[in-house]
Predict the structure.
Amino acid sequence: MGQERGSISFDNTKNAFAYKSDKELKKAHFLFSSMGYQFLVSVGIRLTKWAIKMRLPVNGIIKNTIFQQFVGGETLAQTAPVARKLGEFNVQVILDYGVEGGESSESAFDHACEEFIRVIRYAATQPNIPFMSIKVTGIARFSLLEKLDKSAEEQSGSLMKRFAAAYDSLTKEEKGEWDRVKERIHKICTAAGSLKIGVLVDAEETWIQDPVDVLTMQMMDEFNKQKAIVYNTIQLYRHDRFSFLKDSITAAEQRSFVLGVKLVRGAYMEKERARAEANGYPSPIQPDKGTTDKDYNAALRLCVDHIDNVSFIVASHNEYSNLLATELLDEKGYSHRHPHVHFSQLYGMSDNITFNLAGAGCSVSKYLPFGPIRDVVPYLMRRAQENSSVAGQTGRELGLIKKEIARRKKER
């Protein structure tokens, strides 16, 4: 059974799929049916990676199936009709230039920085694109982040003090390299601040997250004085993140800035556990899903309790958490469109949540990646794996699609 309390029902498929034609609905049905077979997905992922590496002509197949379901287009211009269609249903857009794991050179980082700024400038011309997303690994060398994180781990004191000591331990060249990373993110945030577009800084793996947190907090301290422009991403499947959220709120209050946070459950669980086991350190991941859910919902309560100082995004596909957030707002007498609260789900997934929240007057968006097919393949592979490994999610998507197809047939 879906979640339903008050006036919001996540079982209303008429609202959920009003933006999809019969043909698009049937295509989504085929795709999610295929994703239900884990073996098929595993083989498909391996074949796709191999085919792209061998430069085989598979772009057409990818584009007409998984790409179309989860991605807004290959270029910024191609995202426009998608954003426009979502806008008709009061759904906004978070733009994500979905390039991952590209070149690791200063010129590539400078190029990514300019691309992020181009996305900000474009978003500012559109009526329903309030946010865009960046990855620090797009503008900084992974191994530099890793070195800084490892060094900070060996220090004592607050995160900022530990990081300052880690920075001092770098070579002259590495310090110059880090200073350029700071310059890039500062340029991005300056453009965003002047055009009033929110910048969501993605979470990374635990072994490079500390420098990302420091960088993001430094940008918030400068750019979030009046309103939240910069947002950090907090992954609640990590057992230390709820206390990190509390520390972040305290820091924001002490430094007089608005804390921006995107609350997610997390994206690197298998990788994190495997690395912890291989390297003989305690896993940073919660012992079970129930503990993750408990911390996520506690984080929602904490943010609502500090709503004057915290601007937060409920970035979740969990029906209970989304409903809980609306109830917490109701309890305090806050509007579902409070300027410090936003909801978001990935494009191509959980339409029952997104469109029913929009129908209930919530400020809600779809997270919309775009980029050349070969560059967004890592993102697409994660979506495929996610939907095959979380049987409940695939089953839920498929059940809702079937229900809507049956409803439309009956109405005719």
